[in-house]
Amino acid sequence: MEMLTIGAFAKASRLSPKALRLYDELELLRPARVDPETGYRYYAPEQLEQARLVAWLRRLGMPLAGIREVCALEPPAAAREIRAFWARTESETATRRDLAAFLVDHLSRTVPRDPGKPGTPDDPSKDTTMLELRYSALSDTGLVRPANQDTAYAGTRVLAVADGFGSGGAPASSAAVEALKFLDDEPLPAGSVLNLLEDAVQGATQAVQEVAGPTNEIGTTLTAMVWTGSQLALVHIGDSRAYLLRGGGLFRITHDHTMVQSMLDEGRLTPEEATAHPQRALLLKALTGGGSAPAPAPDVRLHDALVGDRYLLCSDGLSAVVSEATIRDTLAAASTPTEAAQALVGAANDSGGPDNVSCVVADLVNAESQ
Question: What is the pTM of this model?
Fold first, then answer.
């Protein structure tokens, strides 16, 4: 079999000799033969396809460890793994995009007091629109479960829903929400809300761990929003959801951390198949107790808010049995957050109420016009 020198192989594969030597060391792309005396590497022409795959995956931004896994798979399985990697990448990019947009907006509205000195926000008196949240929270046991393990909370700045599971699910969900309530106590500067929210999530994680003890079979989901006066900061882990009703359209602004959602992302399930999948409630991320592994990172994002927006936070006791079309119509028809929350809980129970159901509904209004 005719071999290619490392130089010829590098030219044909568009990988540098330096990269080929690195991939050899990492066992990503081993040469077909190494001269025992000179150590010179030779490659078989059949290795060009794998070399090009490695080059393409590197351009895609896949880590070397991920490339090693993909190269060991058969083509159909490799395709699924690449699709899953790109879904994760798009989700992470969306989070960074929102953060970048927030920072651009925040810094654009900052004016320097003196050259060389830190900036100060624009004079609040120049903004004549005073915005605030009008809200309602409601939690119901449903028609089947013997007890309610959900916790729903709505305050001046904090909106939260947590869905506990396991024998200590109720105290776990309550502990997670309690850990966020301090954010309701005083105005939150927009520039530091993400830091405050990350601290609050760490506190929620510790609180759940204290309640759950050494087992990871007790825990809770957590979906919460914090109002800064101009934006809403979102933290989310698990399969509770947040929706936005704007201009008559309903938008889901969270991504479920479930096995079924990951299979949807990878194209292994259709939306119709997902609704009937036996593992549709299996969580990939949650706040739990015990274990030596680090706690999974929640999604943290910032959202611009507009007067007239209506937000819904809910446990899967609603979203699993009531269609998004019905949720949209119910939110749009209700005149107040209280009326909307009551109607949504009623819709879940009308659909059999198989689970606890919790809703927080909040409207963004112009305080001066109320």
Answer: 0.68
